Amino acid sequence: MAAVGGDWPRKIMLVSALGTFVVGNAITALANDLNTVLASRALAGLGAAMFAPTALGVASSLVTPGRRGRALSIVTAGLAGSTALGAPLGTFIGGFTDWRYTLWFVAVLGGVSMLGVGLLLKSLPETPRVSIRQRFAPVRDVRVALTLMTTLFTYGGFLMVYTYVAIVLDRVTGGDERVLAGFLFLWGLAATAGNVLAGPLVDKYESRRIINCALSIAVVNFCLLPWASAHSVTAVISLAVWAVCGWGMMVPQQHRLVKTAPHVAPLLLALNNTAFYIGLGCSGAVGGVVILLLDRHFLSLGGAASLVIALFIAEAAYWSIARKTRVDTPSEVFPRRIEPDA
After folding, report:
1. 10-123+132-323 falls under which CATH superfamily?
2. Contact at 8 Å (CB) between 329 and 155?
């Protein structure tokens, strides 16, 4: 959708995406059969998928390059914040009323956001017209491919543990879902903090330094998690480190992609989201295999292995970006020179 809708005015794209999201949630709230629920969830997902990369692209275009990291972190913080507050709030509403009211609440929030964007966001300059072929050119570029692979292995590792967090933390939760919800709430708050902190850091330091530090610390943290998860205090500390490093990685990855090819930033950010969700999808299956081979409390070692792979790929991406200072053909939309500190 990012490629097909690339010629749409950005404001119309944002409003249309939010409108699609609202309609999808409203239909789900009114649905009386499974097929309608599934179709409406797909519609709401389409709206969300249209909105996220467009919002990130708009945010990065509204500021100077020196403040791009902050802009990206503010938008991405919404995702991290929803992780911290969305599930508990939705459970609270559904527990006191009916699950349909949760969907109506989400639809109302989407409607308010749609009105806010429509009324408050000024019209943005039209982006240069770029053909569909040119929009998909980044997929063939090794710099982009390596950066996307970094995202895939990074979040495949991080989310491998998150998928099975209930059994990883069973020694401190005692199987109590309310205690687990409390741990996840703290995890979400730390994730939001890590995301917000990453913005100014990306603007001040090169992305490579932040990516390498975050992945290195996360590997050590995951290697210690089998023992840290046995005690409440150390489990909280480990969860906080995990969340800060995990969500703090998102902004420098986005920043690296935008600097590599700013003319197709929405498409690259959409591809980055795709890599994230592919990593999420694979994490459950790979994690299940790891649990068959190891004790469930050592699942984080499998996640650490994925993060080590991501670290090597991230380094390869950096050196590829540093070497390739010119585009292959004049028809590409990539800038002729890229900044070597990506």
Report:
1. MFS general substrate transporter like domains (1.20.1250.20)
2. no
